[in-house]
Design brief:
The complex is a heterodimer of chains A (about 375) and B (about 150).
Chain A (H helix, E strand, L loop, with lengths): L4 E5 L3 E9 L4 E8 L5 H5 L7 E5 L3 E2 L18 E3 L2 E2 L12 H7 L3 E4 L3 H11 L2 E6 L4 H9 L10 H4 L5 E2 L8 E7 L4 H9 L2 E7 L4 H6 L4 E4 L10 H7 L8 E4 L1 H9 L3 E18 L5 E13 L8 E6 L5 E5 L5 E4 L14 H14 L8
Helix pairs in contact in A: 8-9
Chain B lengths: L3 E5 L5 H15 L1 H4 L7 H10 L5 E7 L2 E10 L6 E8 L8 H15 L4 E7 L3 H9 L3 E5 L2 E7 L1
Parallel strand pairs in B: 4-5
Antiparallel strand pairs in B: 1-2, 2-3, 3-4, 5-7, 6-7
Helix pairs in contact in B: 1-3
Classes of the chains: A alpha/beta (about 375), B alpha+beta (about 150).
Chain lengths: ~375, ~150
Protein backbone atom coordinates (compact mmCIF):
# COMPACT_ATOMS: atom_id res chain seq x y z
CA UNK A 1 0.00 0.00 0.00
CA UNK A 2 1.33 3.48 -0.91
CA UNK A 3 2.22 5.82 1.92
CA UNK A 4 -0.21 8.49 2.96
CA UNK A 5 0.73 12.13 3.06
CA UNK A 6 -1.14 15.26 4.08
CA UNK A 7 -1.36 18.90 3.28
CA UNK A 8 -1.97 20.77 6.52
CA UNK A 9 -3.06 24.40 6.29
CA UNK A 10 -2.23 26.90 9.00
CA UNK A 11 -5.90 27.00 10.05
CA UNK A 12 -5.64 23.29 10.86
CA UNK A 13 -7.48 22.00 7.79
CA UNK A 14 -6.05 18.68 6.64
CA UNK A 15 -6.20 17.27 3.11
CA UNK A 16 -5.15 13.69 2.57
CA UNK A 17 -3.32 12.46 -0.49
CA UNK A 18 -0.64 10.19 -1.82
CA UNK A 19 2.97 11.31 -2.14
CA UNK A 20 4.71 11.44 -5.50
CA UNK A 21 7.87 13.09 -6.72
CA UNK A 22 10.42 13.40 -3.94
CA UNK A 23 9.34 11.88 -0.64
CA UNK A 24 9.76 14.58 1.92
CA UNK A 25 8.31 17.45 3.85
CA UNK A 26 7.80 20.98 2.62
CA UNK A 27 6.18 24.17 3.73
CA UNK A 28 5.19 27.39 2.01
CA UNK A 29 2.35 29.65 1.08
CA UNK A 30 -0.40 27.54 -0.51
CA UNK A 31 -1.66 29.12 -3.74
CA UNK A 32 -3.77 27.82 -6.60
CA UNK A 33 -3.54 28.28 -10.35
CA UNK A 34 -6.46 27.73 -12.69
CA UNK A 35 -4.33 27.28 -15.82
CA UNK A 36 -5.35 24.07 -17.58
CA UNK A 37 -1.92 23.42 -19.10
CA UNK A 38 1.63 24.61 -18.60
CA UNK A 39 2.58 22.78 -15.42
CA UNK A 40 6.24 22.63 -16.43
CA UNK A 41 6.36 26.39 -16.99
CA UNK A 42 4.61 27.00 -13.68
CA UNK A 43 6.91 24.64 -11.76
CA UNK A 44 9.97 26.49 -13.05
CA UNK A 45 8.56 30.02 -12.75
CA UNK A 46 10.67 31.78 -10.07
CA UNK A 47 7.61 33.82 -9.04
CA UNK A 48 6.37 30.61 -7.35
CA UNK A 49 9.42 30.46 -5.06
CA UNK A 50 8.38 29.90 -1.46
CA UNK A 51 4.97 28.55 -2.46
CA UNK A 52 3.14 25.24 -2.56
CA UNK A 53 1.32 25.22 -5.88
CA UNK A 54 -2.15 23.68 -6.20
CA UNK A 55 -3.39 23.08 -9.74
CA UNK A 56 -7.15 23.19 -10.11
CA UNK A 57 -7.16 21.33 -13.42
CA UNK A 58 -7.64 17.71 -12.33
CA UNK A 59 -5.26 15.82 -14.63
CA UNK A 60 -1.66 16.93 -14.53
CA UNK A 61 1.41 15.41 -16.18
CA UNK A 62 -0.35 13.89 -19.20
CA UNK A 63 2.07 15.36 -21.76
CA UNK A 64 5.14 14.69 -19.64
CA UNK A 65 8.22 16.84 -19.18
CA UNK A 66 10.47 18.08 -21.99
CA UNK A 67 13.68 20.07 -22.34
CA UNK A 68 12.14 23.16 -23.91
CA UNK A 69 9.38 24.32 -21.61
CA UNK A 70 11.45 25.39 -18.62
CA UNK A 71 11.29 29.00 -17.47
CA UNK A 72 14.36 28.88 -15.22
CA UNK A 73 17.15 26.47 -14.41
CA UNK A 74 15.24 24.50 -11.79
CA UNK A 75 11.88 23.77 -10.20
CA UNK A 76 10.98 26.76 -8.07
CA UNK A 77 7.84 25.66 -6.20
CA UNK A 78 8.34 24.12 -2.77
CA UNK A 79 5.75 21.39 -3.51
CA UNK A 80 3.04 20.54 -6.02
CA UNK A 81 -0.51 19.45 -5.12
CA UNK A 82 -2.76 17.87 -7.73
CA UNK A 83 -5.87 15.76 -8.03
CA UNK A 84 -4.41 13.19 -10.41
CA UNK A 85 -0.76 12.93 -11.50
CA UNK A 86 -0.52 11.09 -14.82
CA UNK A 87 2.15 8.40 -14.77
CA UNK A 88 1.93 7.47 -18.47
CA UNK A 89 2.48 10.69 -20.41
CA UNK A 90 1.98 10.88 -24.14
CA UNK A 91 3.82 13.52 -26.17
CA UNK A 92 6.56 13.32 -28.78
CA UNK A 93 8.83 15.64 -26.78
CA UNK A 94 8.27 14.02 -23.41
CA UNK A 95 11.43 12.75 -21.75
CA UNK A 96 10.21 11.92 -18.28
CA UNK A 97 7.12 11.84 -16.10
CA UNK A 98 6.08 14.59 -13.75
CA UNK A 99 6.87 12.23 -10.86
CA UNK A 100 10.42 11.66 -12.17
CA UNK A 101 10.94 15.38 -12.72
CA UNK A 102 9.90 16.32 -9.18
CA UNK A 103 11.90 13.44 -7.71
CA UNK A 104 15.01 14.42 -9.70
CA UNK A 105 15.01 17.86 -8.04
CA UNK A 106 13.93 16.83 -4.56
CA UNK A 107 10.52 18.48 -4.75
CA UNK A 108 7.60 16.70 -3.05
CA UNK A 109 4.25 16.23 -4.74
CA UNK A 110 0.89 15.24 -3.33
CA UNK A 111 -1.80 13.67 -5.49
CA UNK A 112 -5.29 12.40 -4.87
CA UNK A 113 -6.16 15.63 -3.08
CA UNK A 114 -9.63 17.12 -3.27
CA UNK A 115 -8.29 20.22 -5.02
CA UNK A 116 -11.78 21.68 -5.46
CA UNK A 117 -12.36 21.71 -1.70
CA UNK A 118 -8.84 23.01 -1.13
CA UNK A 119 -9.24 25.83 -3.67
CA UNK A 120 -12.63 26.73 -2.23
CA UNK A 121 -11.03 26.96 1.21
CA UNK A 122 -8.31 29.28 -0.13
CA UNK A 123 -10.81 31.42 -2.00
CA UNK A 124 -13.04 31.83 1.05
CA UNK A 125 -10.35 32.27 3.70
CA UNK A 126 -7.49 33.58 1.55
CA UNK A 127 -4.11 32.06 0.81
CA UNK A 128 -2.35 30.70 3.87
CA UNK A 129 0.74 28.84 4.88
CA UNK A 130 0.72 25.07 4.58
CA UNK A 131 2.92 22.03 5.12
CA UNK A 132 3.27 18.74 3.32
CA UNK A 133 3.41 16.05 6.00
CA UNK A 134 4.71 12.56 5.52
CA UNK A 135 5.77 10.19 8.27
CA UNK A 136 4.43 12.65 10.82
CA UNK A 137 0.94 13.34 12.10
CA UNK A 138 -1.05 16.34 10.90
CA UNK A 139 -0.77 17.76 14.43
CA UNK A 140 3.03 17.52 14.33
CA UNK A 141 3.10 19.10 10.87
CA UNK A 142 0.92 21.95 12.09
CA UNK A 143 3.27 22.58 15.01
CA UNK A 144 6.24 22.53 12.61
CA UNK A 145 4.48 24.91 10.23
CA UNK A 146 3.80 27.41 12.99
CA UNK A 147 7.51 27.61 13.77
CA UNK A 148 8.47 28.45 10.16
CA UNK A 149 8.86 31.98 8.73
CA UNK A 150 5.78 33.21 6.92
CA UNK A 151 5.71 33.99 3.20
CA UNK A 152 6.19 37.70 2.73
CA UNK A 153 8.62 38.08 5.60
CA UNK A 154 11.72 37.05 3.66
CA UNK A 155 13.19 38.54 0.50
CA UNK A 156 12.71 35.71 -1.98
CA UNK A 157 14.09 37.81 -4.85
CA UNK A 158 17.59 37.40 -3.41
CA UNK A 159 17.06 33.61 -3.49
CA UNK A 160 16.10 33.46 -7.17
CA UNK A 161 17.99 36.30 -8.83
CA UNK A 162 21.04 35.60 -11.02
CA UNK A 163 24.18 35.47 -8.91
CA UNK A 164 26.01 37.43 -11.60
CA UNK A 165 25.15 39.08 -14.90
CA UNK A 166 25.11 37.19 -18.17
CA UNK A 167 24.39 37.73 -21.83
CA UNK A 168 21.46 35.87 -23.40
CA UNK A 169 22.41 34.33 -26.81
CA UNK A 170 22.43 37.24 -29.23
CA UNK A 171 20.31 37.55 -32.37
CA UNK A 172 22.12 37.80 -35.73
CA UNK A 173 21.82 41.57 -36.04
CA UNK A 174 20.87 43.15 -32.74
CA UNK A 175 18.94 46.40 -32.96
CA UNK A 176 18.61 47.30 -29.29
CA UNK A 177 20.35 46.47 -26.06
CA UNK A 178 17.93 45.58 -23.28
CA UNK A 179 19.06 45.15 -19.70
CA UNK A 180 16.82 42.80 -17.78
CA UNK A 181 16.89 43.21 -14.01
CA UNK A 182 16.39 39.65 -12.85
CA UNK A 183 14.11 39.57 -9.83
CA UNK A 184 13.00 36.07 -10.87
CA UNK A 185 12.87 36.36 -14.63
CA UNK A 186 11.30 33.77 -16.90
CA UNK A 187 13.30 32.60 -19.91
CA UNK A 188 10.49 33.43 -22.30
CA UNK A 189 11.00 37.14 -21.69
CA UNK A 190 14.52 36.83 -23.08
CA UNK A 191 13.34 34.55 -25.90
CA UNK A 192 10.73 37.10 -27.02
CA UNK A 193 13.19 40.01 -26.81
CA UNK A 194 15.75 38.07 -28.84
CA UNK A 195 13.10 37.19 -31.46
CA UNK A 196 12.57 40.95 -31.80
CA UNK A 197 16.23 41.62 -32.45
CA UNK A 198 17.32 42.62 -28.95
CA UNK A 199 20.65 41.90 -27.36
CA UNK A 200 19.78 41.03 -23.78
CA UNK A 201 21.98 41.42 -20.72
CA UNK A 202 20.55 39.93 -17.56
CA UNK A 203 21.74 41.42 -14.27
CA UNK A 204 21.12 40.55 -10.62
CA UNK A 205 18.31 42.41 -8.85
CA UNK A 206 20.88 43.91 -6.50
CA UNK A 207 22.63 45.81 -9.31
CA UNK A 208 23.08 49.49 -8.45
CA UNK A 209 21.93 52.48 -10.52
CA UNK A 210 25.50 53.05 -11.62
CA UNK A 211 25.86 49.39 -12.55
CA UNK A 212 22.79 49.64 -14.74
CA UNK A 213 23.93 52.91 -16.33
CA UNK A 214 27.35 51.46 -17.12
CA UNK A 215 25.68 48.90 -19.37
CA UNK A 216 24.21 51.74 -21.48
CA UNK A 217 20.90 50.05 -22.19
CA UNK A 218 18.46 51.17 -24.89
CA UNK A 219 15.74 49.80 -22.63
CA UNK A 220 15.42 48.53 -19.10
CA UNK A 221 13.12 45.62 -18.24
CA UNK A 222 12.21 44.94 -14.63
CA UNK A 223 11.28 41.30 -14.40
CA UNK A 224 8.62 39.38 -12.54
CA UNK A 225 9.57 37.72 -9.28
CA UNK A 226 8.38 36.30 -5.99
CA UNK A 227 7.42 37.76 -2.64
CA UNK A 228 6.32 41.03 -1.16
CA UNK A 229 7.40 44.10 -3.18
CA UNK A 230 7.43 46.11 0.05
CA UNK A 231 10.71 44.35 0.89
CA UNK A 232 12.46 45.62 -2.24
CA UNK A 233 13.56 49.12 -1.28
CA UNK A 234 17.02 48.46 -2.76
CA UNK A 235 15.49 47.72 -6.16
CA UNK A 236 13.12 50.72 -6.04
CA UNK A 237 16.02 53.01 -5.16
CA UNK A 238 18.28 51.57 -7.87
CA UNK A 239 15.67 52.05 -10.58
CA UNK A 240 14.15 55.40 -9.55
CA UNK A 241 16.97 57.63 -10.92
CA UNK A 242 16.68 55.95 -14.34
CA UNK A 243 12.95 56.58 -14.79
CA UNK A 244 12.52 59.02 -17.64
CA UNK A 245 16.11 58.59 -18.77
CA UNK A 246 15.73 55.26 -20.54
CA UNK A 247 12.61 53.38 -21.80
CA UNK A 248 11.36 51.07 -19.05
CA UNK A 249 9.05 48.06 -19.12
CA UNK A 250 8.00 46.56 -15.78
CA UNK A 251 6.40 43.14 -15.68
CA UNK A 252 4.58 41.76 -12.62
CA UNK A 253 6.93 42.40 -9.68
CA UNK A 254 8.70 44.90 -11.95
CA UNK A 255 5.38 46.72 -12.36
CA UNK A 256 4.98 46.83 -8.58
CA UNK A 257 8.52 48.16 -8.15
CA UNK A 258 7.80 50.99 -10.58
CA UNK A 259 4.49 51.64 -8.83
CA UNK A 260 6.43 52.01 -5.59
CA UNK A 261 9.01 54.26 -7.28
CA UNK A 262 6.11 56.58 -8.16
CA UNK A 263 4.93 56.72 -4.56
CA UNK A 264 2.41 53.91 -4.76
CA UNK A 265 1.75 51.35 -2.06
CA UNK A 266 1.32 47.64 -2.70
CA UNK A 267 -1.11 45.35 -0.91
CA UNK A 268 -1.69 41.63 -0.66
CA UNK A 269 -4.61 40.15 -2.58
CA UNK A 270 -6.87 37.71 -0.75
CA UNK A 271 -6.06 34.74 -2.97
CA UNK A 272 -4.10 36.30 -5.82
CA UNK A 273 -4.42 35.99 -9.57
CA UNK A 274 -2.91 32.79 -10.91
CA UNK A 275 -4.09 31.32 -14.17
CA UNK A 276 -4.14 31.78 -17.91
CA UNK A 277 -7.49 33.42 -18.64
CA UNK A 278 -7.64 36.63 -16.62
CA UNK A 279 -9.46 39.44 -18.44
CA UNK A 280 -7.74 42.81 -18.46
CA UNK A 281 -9.03 46.07 -19.95
CA UNK A 282 -6.77 48.62 -21.62
CA UNK A 283 -8.25 51.94 -20.51
CA UNK A 284 -6.68 53.83 -23.42
CA UNK A 285 -8.00 51.65 -26.23
CA UNK A 286 -11.00 50.12 -24.44
CA UNK A 287 -9.86 46.67 -25.61
CA UNK A 288 -10.01 43.63 -23.40
CA UNK A 289 -7.19 41.11 -23.38
CA UNK A 290 -7.03 37.61 -21.94
CA UNK A 291 -3.87 37.37 -19.90
CA UNK A 292 -1.66 34.94 -18.05
CA UNK A 293 -1.19 35.91 -14.41
CA UNK A 294 0.73 34.94 -11.32
CA UNK A 295 0.72 37.51 -8.57
CA UNK A 296 -0.33 37.79 -4.96
CA UNK A 297 0.20 41.54 -4.52
CA UNK A 298 -1.18 44.54 -6.38
CA UNK A 299 -0.47 48.27 -6.70
CA UNK A 300 -2.88 50.60 -4.94
CA UNK A 301 -3.62 53.45 -7.39
CA UNK A 302 -4.15 55.85 -4.49
CA UNK A 303 -0.88 57.60 -3.80
CA UNK A 304 0.64 57.25 -7.27
CA UNK A 305 2.26 60.57 -8.10
CA UNK A 306 4.50 62.37 -10.60
CA UNK A 307 2.16 61.77 -13.49
CA UNK A 308 2.07 57.95 -13.68
CA UNK A 309 -1.37 56.77 -14.80
CA UNK A 310 -3.37 53.57 -14.59
CA UNK A 311 -3.21 51.97 -18.03
CA UNK A 312 -5.00 48.63 -17.54
CA UNK A 313 -7.35 47.10 -14.97
CA UNK A 314 -8.46 43.58 -14.10
CA UNK A 315 -12.08 43.04 -15.04
CA UNK A 316 -12.76 40.55 -12.23
CA UNK A 317 -11.82 42.75 -9.30
CA UNK A 318 -10.82 46.15 -10.75
CA UNK A 319 -7.23 45.98 -9.51
CA UNK A 320 -4.46 47.78 -11.40
CA UNK A 321 -2.95 45.66 -14.19
CA UNK A 322 -0.79 48.24 -15.90
CA UNK A 323 0.66 51.73 -15.61
CA UNK A 324 1.95 54.22 -18.17
CA UNK A 325 3.43 57.66 -18.09
CA UNK A 326 2.01 60.21 -20.54
CA UNK A 327 5.30 62.12 -20.70
CA UNK A 328 7.98 59.55 -20.00
CA UNK A 329 8.89 56.24 -21.71
CA UNK A 330 7.52 53.98 -18.98
CA UNK A 331 4.98 51.18 -19.27
CA UNK A 332 4.21 48.40 -16.83
CA UNK A 333 1.97 45.36 -16.78
CA UNK A 334 0.98 43.27 -13.79
CA UNK A 335 0.28 40.18 -15.92
CA UNK A 336 2.66 38.09 -18.01
CA UNK A 337 2.89 39.24 -21.61
CA UNK A 338 5.45 36.47 -22.09
CA UNK A 339 2.76 33.92 -21.14
CA UNK A 340 4.49 30.58 -20.51
CA UNK A 341 2.02 29.29 -19.72
CA UNK A 342 -0.96 30.93 -21.28
CA UNK A 343 -2.11 32.96 -24.25
CA UNK A 344 0.40 34.86 -26.35
CA UNK A 345 -2.20 37.54 -27.11
CA UNK A 346 -0.22 40.13 -25.18
CA UNK A 347 3.21 39.92 -26.77
CA UNK A 348 2.24 43.27 -28.33
CA UNK A 349 3.55 44.75 -25.05
CA UNK A 350 7.08 43.78 -26.13
CA UNK A 351 6.42 45.41 -29.51
CA UNK A 352 5.28 48.55 -27.71
CA UNK A 353 8.48 48.44 -25.64
CA UNK A 354 10.53 48.13 -28.84
CA UNK A 355 8.66 51.03 -30.38
CA UNK A 356 9.43 53.07 -27.25
CA UNK A 357 13.13 52.25 -27.60
CA UNK A 358 13.08 53.05 -31.33
CA UNK A 359 11.43 56.44 -30.95
CA UNK A 360 13.38 57.37 -27.79
CA UNK A 361 16.65 56.49 -29.49
CA UNK A 362 15.65 58.48 -32.56
CA UNK A 363 14.73 61.50 -30.47
CA UNK A 364 11.11 61.43 -31.65
CA UNK A 365 9.55 59.71 -28.69
CA UNK A 366 5.78 59.74 -28.56
CA UNK A 367 3.84 58.79 -25.48
CA UNK A 368 1.36 55.91 -25.38
CA UNK A 369 -2.14 56.93 -26.54
CA UNK B 1 -18.20 -15.25 2.39
CA UNK B 2 -21.77 -14.23 1.52
CA UNK B 3 -22.96 -10.90 0.23
CA UNK B 4 -22.59 -7.58 2.00
CA UNK B 5 -25.74 -6.00 3.34
CA UNK B 6 -26.06 -2.73 5.21
CA UNK B 7 -29.29 -2.13 7.13
CA UNK B 8 -30.63 -0.09 9.99
CA UNK B 9 -29.78 -1.73 13.31
CA UNK B 10 -32.40 -2.77 15.84
CA UNK B 11 -32.16 -3.56 19.53
CA UNK B 12 -31.72 -7.20 18.53
CA UNK B 13 -28.36 -6.25 16.96
CA UNK B 14 -27.06 -4.74 20.19
CA UNK B 15 -25.07 -7.79 21.40
CA UNK B 16 -23.32 -8.18 18.04
CA UNK B 17 -22.56 -4.46 17.79
CA UNK B 18 -21.21 -4.49 21.35
CA UNK B 19 -18.98 -7.39 20.36
CA UNK B 20 -17.61 -5.48 17.34
CA UNK B 21 -17.00 -2.42 19.53
CA UNK B 22 -15.17 -4.51 22.15
CA UNK B 23 -12.95 -6.03 19.44
CA UNK B 24 -12.05 -2.59 18.10
CA UNK B 25 -11.37 -1.15 21.57
CA UNK B 26 -9.12 -4.15 22.23
CA UNK B 27 -7.30 -3.49 18.95
CA UNK B 28 -6.89 0.30 19.10
CA UNK B 29 -7.61 1.25 22.70
CA UNK B 30 -10.51 3.43 23.85
CA UNK B 31 -8.99 6.73 22.70
CA UNK B 32 -7.87 5.78 19.22
CA UNK B 33 -11.10 3.87 18.58
CA UNK B 34 -13.26 6.77 19.82
CA UNK B 35 -15.37 4.25 21.70
CA UNK B 36 -15.99 4.61 25.38
CA UNK B 37 -15.24 1.31 27.11
CA UNK B 38 -16.94 -0.81 28.31
CA UNK B 39 -19.39 -1.00 25.40
CA UNK B 40 -22.06 -3.37 26.65
CA UNK B 41 -25.08 -4.78 24.76
CA UNK B 42 -27.30 -2.91 27.23
CA UNK B 43 -25.57 0.40 26.51
CA UNK B 44 -25.92 -0.13 22.76
CA UNK B 45 -29.58 -1.07 23.12
CA UNK B 46 -30.21 2.05 25.24
CA UNK B 47 -28.53 4.14 22.60
CA UNK B 48 -30.63 2.72 19.78
CA UNK B 49 -33.83 3.27 21.80
CA UNK B 50 -32.78 6.85 22.63
CA UNK B 51 -32.67 8.00 19.03
CA UNK B 52 -36.48 8.22 18.71
CA UNK B 53 -36.30 9.05 15.03
CA UNK B 54 -33.57 11.69 15.44
CA UNK B 55 -30.69 9.34 14.68
CA UNK B 56 -29.97 5.75 13.73
CA UNK B 57 -27.48 2.95 13.94
CA UNK B 58 -26.56 0.86 10.92
CA UNK B 59 -25.01 -2.56 10.78
CA UNK B 60 -23.00 -4.20 7.97
CA UNK B 61 -23.57 -7.93 7.53
CA UNK B 62 -21.46 -10.31 5.49
CA UNK B 63 -23.70 -13.33 5.16
CA UNK B 64 -24.99 -13.79 8.72
CA UNK B 65 -21.98 -12.15 10.39
CA UNK B 66 -22.11 -8.57 11.61
CA UNK B 67 -18.76 -6.96 10.77
CA UNK B 68 -19.22 -3.23 11.22
CA UNK B 69 -21.57 -0.49 12.33
CA UNK B 70 -22.21 3.23 12.00
CA UNK B 71 -23.85 5.53 14.52
CA UNK B 72 -25.69 8.67 13.42
CA UNK B 73 -26.59 10.87 16.35
CA UNK B 74 -27.93 14.38 16.92
CA UNK B 75 -25.27 17.01 17.62
CA UNK B 76 -26.03 18.85 20.82
CA UNK B 77 -26.91 22.49 20.23
CA UNK B 78 -26.39 22.44 16.47
CA UNK B 79 -29.30 22.59 14.07
CA UNK B 80 -29.31 20.47 10.92
CA UNK B 81 -26.18 18.70 12.11
CA UNK B 82 -25.64 15.06 13.01
CA UNK B 83 -22.60 13.26 14.36
CA UNK B 84 -21.39 10.23 12.41
CA UNK B 85 -19.00 7.49 13.50
CA UNK B 86 -18.12 4.37 11.50
CA UNK B 87 -16.39 1.22 12.79
CA UNK B 88 -15.40 -1.93 10.86
CA UNK B 89 -13.61 -5.02 12.19
CA UNK B 90 -9.93 -5.11 11.16
CA UNK B 91 -10.05 -8.05 8.69
CA UNK B 92 -12.83 -6.38 6.72
CA UNK B 93 -11.33 -2.90 6.30
CA UNK B 94 -10.27 -1.38 2.94
CA UNK B 95 -13.04 -3.27 1.14
CA UNK B 96 -15.59 -0.48 0.88
CA UNK B 97 -17.66 -1.67 3.84
CA UNK B 98 -17.14 1.52 5.85
CA UNK B 99 -18.10 3.55 2.79
CA UNK B 100 -21.34 1.54 2.43
CA UNK B 101 -22.16 2.18 6.09
CA UNK B 102 -21.37 5.88 5.73
CA UNK B 103 -23.47 6.24 2.58
CA UNK B 104 -26.47 4.60 4.32
CA UNK B 105 -26.00 7.00 7.23
CA UNK B 106 -25.68 10.00 4.92
CA UNK B 107 -28.91 9.07 3.14
CA UNK B 108 -30.67 8.80 6.49
CA UNK B 109 -29.19 12.10 7.66
CA UNK B 110 -30.51 13.83 4.55
CA UNK B 111 -33.95 12.35 5.16
CA UNK B 112 -33.82 13.81 8.67
CA UNK B 113 -33.18 17.27 7.21
CA UNK B 114 -29.50 17.46 8.17
CA UNK B 115 -27.16 19.55 6.04
CA UNK B 116 -23.94 18.69 7.82
CA UNK B 117 -22.23 15.76 9.48
CA UNK B 118 -19.56 16.16 12.09
CA UNK B 119 -17.32 13.81 13.97
CA UNK B 120 -13.97 13.38 15.62
CA UNK B 121 -10.92 11.54 14.37
CA UNK B 122 -8.67 10.43 17.21
CA UNK B 123 -5.05 11.52 17.15
CA UNK B 124 -2.92 9.16 15.10
CA UNK B 125 -5.84 7.41 13.38
CA UNK B 126 -4.68 8.30 9.88
CA UNK B 127 -6.78 5.63 8.09
CA UNK B 128 -9.87 7.29 9.58
CA UNK B 129 -8.64 10.67 8.38
CA UNK B 130 -8.20 9.31 4.86
CA UNK B 131 -11.57 7.56 5.03
CA UNK B 132 -13.50 10.71 5.88
CA UNK B 133 -11.36 12.76 3.47
CA UNK B 134 -12.31 10.46 0.62
CA UNK B 135 -15.98 10.84 1.54
CA UNK B 136 -15.48 14.57 0.93
CA UNK B 137 -15.19 15.69 4.54
CA UNK B 138 -12.94 18.57 5.50
CA UNK B 139 -10.78 17.60 8.47
CA UNK B 140 -9.22 20.04 10.89
CA UNK B 141 -6.62 19.57 13.56
CA UNK B 142 -8.11 20.52 16.92
CA UNK B 143 -6.78 20.18 20.43
CA UNK B 144 -6.03 16.52 21.08
CA UNK B 145 -6.96 15.18 17.67
CA UNK B 146 -8.96 15.98 14.59
CA UNK B 147 -12.51 16.94 13.79
CA UNK B 148 -14.23 16.58 10.45
CA UNK B 149 -17.16 18.27 8.80
CA UNK B 150 -19.03 16.89 5.82
CA UNK B 151 -21.64 19.03 4.06
CA UNK B 152 -24.41 16.77 2.72
Amino acid sequence: MRRRAFLVLEDGTVFTGRPFGAIGQAYGEVVFSTAMTGYQEMLTDPSYAGQILVLTYPLVGNYGINRQDVESSRIQVRALVVRDACSIPSHWASEMTLHEYLASQGVPGLEGVDTRALTRRLRIHGVMMGAIAIDESPEEALARLRSMPRYGTTDLVKEVTAKEGYLWPEPAAPRYHVVVVDAGVKFNIMRLLRERGCRVTVVPATTSTEGLQTLAPDGLLLSPGPGDPALLDYLVEAVRPLLGKVPVLGICLGHQVIGRAFGGRTFKLKFGHRGANHPVKDLLSGRVFITSQNHGYAVDPEGLRDGIQVWQVHLNDGTVEGLYHPELPIITIQYHAEASPGPLDNTYVFDTFLEMMRSWKGGRWEPLR
Amino acid sequence: MGTLKVRKATVADAPAIAHIAEEIVRELGPEASALEAPVTPEAIARRIRSYQGKGAMFVAMLGRRRIGFAALEPASGEKETLVLGVWVLAPYRRQGIGTQLALAAIEKARSLGAHRLRGTIPQGNEPALSFFGELGALAQAVAGGMAYELPI
